[in-house]
Amino acid sequence: MKELQVGLIGCGAIGRDHAQRIQNKLQRAKIVAVTDVIKESAQKVAQLCGCKVAETAEDIIADPKIDAVVVTAWDPAHKELVLECIKHKKFVFCEKPLATEAKGAKEIIKAEMEGGQRLVQVGFMRRYDKGYRQMKELIDAGEIGAPLLVHSAHRNVASGQGVTEDFMITQTCIHEIDLTKWLIQDDYDSVRCIVGRTSKEAPEGLRDPQMVMIRTKSGICIDIEVFLNARFGYDIQCQVVGENGTVNLPDPSYPPIRKEAFKGTSLCMDWSVRFIEAYDVELQEWIDNTLEGITSGPNSWDGYIAALTADLLIQSRDEGGTEIKLNTPERPVFYA
Ligand SMILES: NC(=O)c1ccc[n+]([C@@H]2O[C@H](COP(=O)([O-])OP(=O)(O)OC[C@H]3O[C@@H](n4cnc5c(N)ncnc54)[C@H](O)[C@@H]3O)[C@@H](O)[C@H]2O)c1
Ligand SMILES: O[C@H]1[C@H](O)[C@@H](O)[C@H](O)[C@@H](O)[C@H]1O
């Protein structure tokens, strides 16, 4: 059976995880080369995977022996790397966001459509999480009636170095922007983002938390708390309220502990543990499809719509929380 020869660009936290996951855990794929603008980072991952270090990203993308590319570089590099993959007709799995602004994502769509073949999958891995999938099944089966409201929270322990207020939307909230639309199958109609009291735990210049509010075309109201310095744990919550009931995202299950007048369960401290199974399912599916020469899952259009929504949320926040209409363009048949 053929084995997919994969090159990986960006050897930071998730690049290292994905490279090892592909090399040691998943089936039918092999990491053959990695690269990073920081040479030592690439060398470390190459050592872990027993593969070569490529000098540049272009060397990976243009290598005829490499079938497909994983982009795990930092957000602002995604657009150019994906465009380069499309130019070379290479299948590419690009971590979210597809681009930091809608206009970058639009360039990708144009290039992909002109090339006549869908090549891109975006790393919106929440769609592969068991808990979200169970919620969707119940909603689709009509178990809670028509959805009316969605309440979500995206809490990180601490904002990383260099995180900006815009990243809070384009890098963090982007998960909920994509996931919620997929969960309730409705396009967005208007968006708002407001900021109130900032936590004293937040670094200077970062207004944290931020509140996102979205209304869908059918009138479902969505609120999303984005809180990067929540300190207590990596906490992802989602509740959909329907006409006949509610459904909640299950917390990961850990054995309950009773000790020293305390009863409870542990919390994850970061995304790599919280969504470990979702990453495995997502990437195995990408490998299997790519070997068949097809794409499925979140595509460039989904990346574009998410980026468009993020652009307007940032605009709303910067205007003091105005409600902004989102004229969602119609999905081309190419991305159906
Ligand atoms: N789906 C998820 O849950 C999830 C989780 C974490 C990160 N991410 C995404 O994955 C990407 C990487 O995140 P991270 O946490 O690993 O960040 P990181 O900062 O730890 O790693 C990014 C790496 O990319 C390298 N890099 C930057 N530009 C590059 C370029 N042009 N060519 C080659 N290498 C380049 C950096 O040197 C760094 O080593 C980000 O886009 C992030 O949004 C997604
Ligand atoms: O890149 C990461 C990742 O996407 C996590 O899932 C999210 O919780 C973080 O806020 C973000 O910085």
Automatic annotation (TrEMBL):
Query: What EC identifiers does the entry list?
Result: 1.1.1.18, 1.1.1.369
Give the matching Pfam families. Answer: GFO_IDH_MocA, GFO_IDH_MocA_C
Q: Which reaction does it catalyse?
A: myo-inositol + NAD(+) = scyllo-inosose + NADH + H(+); 1D-chiro-inositol + NAD(+) = scyllo-inosine + NADH + H(+)
- Give the Gfo/Idh/MocA-like oxidoreductase N-terminal domain ranges: 5-124
**Pathway it belongs to?**
Polyol metabolism; myo-inositol degradation into acetyl-CoA; acetyl-CoA from myo-inositol: step 1/7
> Could you tell me which residue ranges the Gfo/Idh/MocA-like oxidoreductase C-terminal domain spans?
136-323
Tell me which domain of life the UniProt entry assigns to the organism this sequence originates from: Bacteria
Q: Which UniProt keywords apply?
A: NAD, Oxidoreductase
Q: Which Gene3D superfamilies would you find in this protein's record?
A: Dihydrodipicolinate Reductase, domain 2, NAD(P)-binding Rossmann-like Domain
What does the UniProt record say this protein does?
Involved in the oxidation of myo-inositol (MI) and D-chiro-inositol (DCI) to 2-keto-myo-inositol (2KMI or 2-inosose) and 1-keto-D-chiro-inositol (1KDCI), respectively.
Spell out the subunit comment.
Homotetramer.
Family, similarity comment: Belongs to the Gfo/Idh/MocA family.
Supply the HAMAP family for this chain.
IolG
What this protein is called in its record is: Inositol 2-dehydrogenase/D-chiro-inositol 3-dehydrogenase
